[in-house]
Amino acid sequence: MQKHKWIAVALAFGTLAACGDTLGEQALVGAGAGGAAAVVLEQDALVGAAIGAAGNIAYCQKYPERC
Q: Would you say which domain of life the source belongs to (predicted)?
């Protein structure tokens, strides 16, 4: 079961590579990935979504050519 959790986490973080074209899309994609990772790791999904959204927005704003 532990192996499945790490695979799901890797897939969730891989979702962040999608970025999004607008600020709203970036927040939504990040929130989805962060929330999913938090659920898999049995943590608070709301906190995971907030961290994921902030992280994806920050990444996409800093490296727009990679999104």
A: Bacteria
